[in-house]
Amino acid sequence: MTVPLLKLNTGTEVPAIGLGCWLGHPGGGEETYEMVKTALKLGYRHFDTASAYENEEGGEPSASRVYLAPKYSFLLSLRRDSDHDDPLRGFESSLKALDVGYIDMFLMHWPIAHIGSFTGPALQPDESPTFVETWLGMEKLLETGKLKHIGVSNFSVKNLEILLEKATVVPSANQVELHPCYPQNKLLEYCRSKGIQVTAYCPLGQYKSPFFSDPELNQAATQMSTSLSRPVAVSQIVLGWAVQRGTIVIPKSSNEGRLKQNLEFISLPDDVFKIVDEFHKKPGMHKALDRYTLAKPGTVVDGLLTVHVCNIHYQFGSEDVQVLDMTVPLIKLNTGAKVPAVGLGCWMGRPGGDEEAYEMVKLGLKLGYRHFDTASRYKNEEAVGKAIRDSGIPRSEVFVTTKLVDWDHDDPLRGFEGSLKALDIDYIDLYLMHWPMARLGGRDGKICQPEESPTFVETWLAMEKLLGTGKVKQIGVSNFSIKTLNTLLEKATVVPAVNQVELHPCYPQNELLGYCKSKGIHLIAYCPLGQYRSPFFSDTVFIEAASRLSNSLSKPITPSQLVLSWAVQRGTIVIPKSSKEERLKQNIDIITLPDDVFKIVDEYHKRPGMHKTLDEYALRDPGTVGWTYEQMGWNLDKEGNVVE
Fold first, then answer.
1. 81 contacts 110 by C-beta, under 8 angstroms
2. Is 44 a catalytic residue?
3. Identified catalytic residue from 53, 378, 507, 526
4. CATH superfamily for domain 10-210+247-254
5. In this predicted model, what pLDDT tens digit does every residue of 459-514 receive, in sequence order?
């Protein structure tokens, strides 16, 4: 195996692929010893450890002495935050633990200092020792002759700019989380301009990294396997991409088969490189995956034993750190398009509300939302479109849904062009017929009965023609029942991509969901959290289940997250609405529910009096929407509640 070498700003060449020695927990000396011993045998010559990992000794005797003289290996160690006040103390401790003649590279593990020990209080950026003071102390270590290079870890562009104002030695490396979901493009470019080598920790991500299950990446791996006549894994494509970008990678594995794979560098053809390089542009995919580092906004986790609170926005120079720990599943429509399973509903409770809608969508985009649902009837399409344009996020990364209003059923093209103009975007991802009934002459016009023209079938056939304009990607319906869908599908030449309906634990629409799945129609849930003091939020069983999950996941979980996660786990898309930042964060943070919790939510409607609609706008009283329940195809229970 040939491992590329990358040259540092000192002229030293370093193997581009090393072995990360963090085992997921402090210590593990024997396990570390065996892992490093196997790796040396397989050809690894670059090892990354740290004082905080508590495994620098790695068992006795040292693997480097058994298999390879230190001068032929590149040995890197990171120093504890609690030694910022005395870098020499930290360095000598690592040198003694490693029991080698010298260390190739010594890094400042974090810009944050702790007093007394790593469980001591975290100092704020302006408190001494600052990371600049610590760095100046580290520069003196080069004079000992026992250290070849110094560098930093977990430094942002902001931190580096502050450091370089005072430094007399430019860091040789900056070790940061870096992978296809979190490519650190701006930081990489900055470091290149300053001669600082970027090293990627977690280069394969953590916790079921989404790129391993991505069909496109798996297909690329299969194609490369065929062209190279040997097995190629997705992990090799990811590491190959990172090295090809000029970064060093330090994946960790104690499995011999994976160690071999990780060390085997593969040069990617341009088309495969592009697939990996642009993975972060997919909806919901641009984020950190290192949950040890970022538990929640404002919290830095040392990844070992304790949580330390500091001002993360200042410390790491990131305005958008709050989006980093959220994974939004993607749902594939019958067109092949992928849609974020959690979107932001833009009905403000009344028509208009442009300024409020603009700020809500702007904040949603900042927090990681990439799916927005509006409608002509909402009278806020202009605000939604402006927020998307002003965000600077590429149009291709945002999924936009809007809807045909009732009084444009006679001319869907007119309604569509009105929405496209109001949104002021090049195309609409999904255009829905808002209701099956038509009105004539405007908002207060006559409601047409099902047999009167334009019928919803006539309107649908006209909507099908919109696909030929190239300005709409998918069409669908909203508020359709099995009855109205059956009527539609008898004449349609295009199967609706979606049906957007009220759906929540009181109103799970099980029959409709089963029917739509059988026809390849995806259900989108509006009012997924119900309305008007939904009864499940005060339910003691829900609250207790949320509390148990909070404990098991070591983070706060709310009943609303249970409800939204249940809906997504059923295979539906949800579009909850909120303009409050904390709720927006909660709503997009989908979790996998264990079977017992899923069952609690899934069977909530079976409780006495709980199976009913909660949408008081749609159902003030029978006939409010213009058609009878029978004409709509809605089912009632014996008390008169709409249950399907």
1. yes
2. no
3. 378
4. NADP-dependent oxidoreductase domain (3.20.20.100)
5. 999 999 999 999 999 999 999 999 999 999 999 999 999 999 999 998 999 999 99
